[in-house]
Amino acid sequence: MTATLSLNEQLNESAVYQAFRDHPFFAAVKSSAVTKEQAEVLIEQWWHPLHYFPTFLARCVAVLPDIASKSAIARILNQEAGGGHVEQAHEVIYVNSMDKCGFDRARVTETEPFEETAALVEGYRRGSESRESAIGFIFATENTDLLMVSSIGAAIERATGISDNEWVSIHVQQEPDHVEEAEHTLMADYSPEQARLVFEAADEMWRLWTRFFDRLSTETGLGA
What we know:
- The protein is mainly α and 224 residues long.
- 77% of the residues lie in helices and 0% in strands.
């Protein structure tokens, strides 16, 4: 077994990661009735990490020392930012998609973040300050992103009856590339200490997301 596969597999076997994937909120939005008001809470809070994510990626490109990792993350950033076409940027598609589903675009982008949401965004900022934490945060995010996005899609469909959401669709299309590029950042050689720092950063990212969804469960009653 190569060191790269070992690092990848150990990250996927994290108990913190498994606990996050089993968060009751995800099951609730796919099996319970969801009101528009409940969906609004999720959509409005999600905007904050979504809006910051391109900045996080750009900071990661700057902090990662090797060109292979820079290239891998730059590809993700390029897709997130629309590949030179601002109308294809994920946050633009997000706001337009939610508007088409009947959610007020001003509320989507201007609602104040919960304490846990602000802590999540701050975590991304801190995570982009060093090579190991950047890699841990990127891996943790990309390997759980589709789970979270599909939950938003499920909440929207249950609340509005609309299943054709462009923002969800573009994630389904692009996420395999994002996961692949995130895994490419694990291809470098890491000392045991560096690997420990990557593991700690990934777990911290999953803990921050867990707290985010804990708060959503409290506010909406979904999965509480």
